[in-house]
Each structure stands twice: as structure tokens, then as C-alpha cells.
Amino acid sequence: MNTKVVKFGGTSLADAQQFKKVADIIKSDPERRFVVPSAPGNRFPEDVKVTDMLYKVYEIASKNEDISEVFEQIKTRYNDIIRDLALDMSLDIEFAKIKNGIINKAGRDYTASRGEYLCGIIMSHYLGFPFIDAAEVIFFNNNGTFDAERTNAALRRKLEKYETAVIPGFYGIMPNGTIKTFPRDGTDITGAVVARAADAVLYENWKEVSGVLMADPRIIKNPKPIDIITYRELRELAYMGAKVMHEDSIFPVRVAKIPINIKNTNNPSDKGTFIVSHTDSLSENTITGIAGKKSFVVITLEKDMMNAEIGFVKRVLEVFEKYNINFEHLPTGIDTLSIIINEQDGETYKDVLFKELQANVNPDSIEYQKSLSLIAVVGRGMIRNKGTAAKIFKAIAEADVNIRMIDQGSSELNIIIGVNDSDFEKAMQAIYNAFA
Ligand code: ASP
After folding, report:
1. How confident is residue 408, by pLDDT bands cut at 50, 70 and 90?
2. Residue 287 CB-density burial (10 A; 0-12 exposed, 13-18 middle, 19+ buried)
3. Whose CA is closest to atom 2 on ligand 1?
4. pTM attached to this predicted model
5. How many angstroms does the Cα of residue 98 sit away from the middle of ligand 1?
């Protein structure tokens, strides 16, 4: 039988009603064998996630103050779920152990991880699936990095013995036996790690949205979801600020070539977004998505006959390297070279950069311009489609926005456009309207 690994985010597990939806989803497909839950999240916008309550408990405990009040609120969140699902179980022994552990300084990560741990126990009772504690199968190195290979081997051996199981997300164990968590939203990572070890055909990541959106919904109203996106496209969008899955949560399934399907717990029949390593299918909108970031600086060097000067670019970049400054883009003309860096680095190092560039390459002029936004228009379909660039530039011109820079990667996977920060939203909207 094929195996699907299903991860559920906090909003999908916020209360008993959400638990029921999750169980319906799991039970409707026997291939959904391994379940990776987060901790209960927000039930309504102003609600507090259990993980945040746990971090608060930790802070209170580290000041040696009484944690009882907040700890009781956490207990109530779980007890309400148990009661409303009419489960014949009690977490009282666990609660007492955990409270004791927190008071006795079991640590910040231990405290935060209990959100997933307790949620996993309830989920395992409710589904009738065995519970595998992540501390038995997810390993970290001494320096705190994730031990992917040891984990994969141990988890693989473990899962082979199980028909179904619930494995809580977000945490694992250090060589010294203490609990360690992944970064925030780390249940995504656990899900991907489990999918790899289970040789899953699909990693389903269930959230409260119907997939990855074509653009940031804070800028574009109701953007369309993306049907299929490749890992490379996703990386381009994420790099430019799109809020999707963390790199670390994609890597384990990417190496194993397992597709990810982002699905909506509240609308399970929506197709969601498939994230794949390769696809021949082109997106119906030519472009796959748009993302962008504000606040970059352009430093432009001009020098007569620059092109004939061997090693010019190298000497320029050495200056940036010396101050550990990452450059984003490097558009060049015959006698000009521009280096685009983030505004914070620009403002911090402006004077030394000018001095050292002057000394290293002796340019005729150096110009420094702030407040540049970069917009990435990403799409594997651009390679085969003529006129994409024309369409983008026409849309921007019609929105009365001046383009300050254009850069097309040679992979033809994206076109980067620079506009003034003040035109950022207008330009994003214009590009979206032209394609969506
Ligand atoms: N509960 C953790 C967090 O809030 C991990 C997760 O939800 O993925 O960050």
C-alpha cells in the first residue's frame, strides 16, 4: 500500500471541532498512515496558541514565579478537547510531570515541545493510532543541528513496525537526553522528515489556507492559489519574502523526490498546491507567482572603458565580501556596474564602501540610491512563452510606475524588477492583474 504522511498545523487542531475534521480527513483515505500534529493553535484571531502559552510559562518559571495560572489555562485547552470529543482518557499524570519538569528547569525547548507531545497523545487516542514519541526517533547533534541521517535510519526502522502512527511535530532529542525543538513552525520539518523515512508517495501539509497563493494577500486582495509549483520556483518566491514553507521543511522531501500537497483542513475538497521537483504542466497564468521586498540600495559605479579592465568586478566584490555584505543583484552596462544590497547594510557601511571602492577600482563616479523595491515575477512557463516581459512592463507602465531596474536570471525562471518603494504595492497589483 502507498503511504501518505499528513501534517496538521495548529489551527487545524485548535479545538474538538477541528479534531473531528482532521479525523474525517485521515479516516477517508487508508493511505494516510502517519500523522504529524502541531500543538493547538488559534481558535479565533485574538486567541493565544498553546506554544506561545508554553513559552510564557517558561519565562515565568525562569523568574522563579508561580506558573500555576497560565499552566491551568493550558490544561483547560487540552481538557476541553478531551471532553468535547467524549474521550475516555485523562492527561492528569502527564500534566503533573510536565509542571514538575518546568519548575525544575527542564528548559525552554522542553516546555515548548509539550504542546505537540500532549496534542499527539490525544490524537492517538482519538484515531486509535499508536503514539511514537518524537524523542525516540528525531535526533539532534551536540551543536544543536538536526542529525538527518541518524534520524532517517532510526525512524525508518521504527515505522516499518507500524501500520499507522501519530508522531508529534516540532521536537526531538539531543545526545545528552534533553529535548530540543526545531525553529518555530517546525512541525513542517518533522512532517517532511517522517515522509522521507516512510518512503511516502505524498507529504500532505494541512493548513488553514487552500495552498500557496500567487501573491501576498496583504497586498493583493484574494490572490488565486497556485496549482503546481516546482521547488525551484518556490525557493525564488520564498527568497523574495513569500511566506511559504521553511527551506528546512522542504529539503528532506526534496532529496527523496516526494511531492508536497498543501491542503486546507476547512475545505478538504480543494485541490490545494502541489510542490514538485519537476513538472511538464505549465501554469495557466504563464507566471506562477509574484513576491517582493522593499528597502534595497543600488550602488552604481561608472568608469570609462570599465569593460576592458580585467578583474574589475572581482575587485569591486572583494570590498563587499570584506564587510560580509551579501549582494542581491549585479546589473551591468558597458561602463557601469550596479550592486544591489539591502538598505540596512548600505546605511551602515556606506562611507567605508565608498572609500574602499574608490581605492580598489578608482571609478569615475559612485552613486548611491536608496528606497528600491525588488519584485520577482516567477514562472517556469516564461521560458516557452514569448511576450511575458512585454506584458509585465506594459502593465507597470500603465500603472504609471517607473522601472528602475530589470534583471532576468539566465534560467528564465524569473524576472526581477526594481521600482521605488513608494510604487511597490501599485506595481505588484498591476503585474498580478495582467496575469491572474
Ligand atoms: N507549535 C510550534 C509553533 O507554534 C510548531 C508548529 O506549529 O509547527 O511554532
Report:
1. confident
2. buried
3. 185
4. 0.88
5. 18
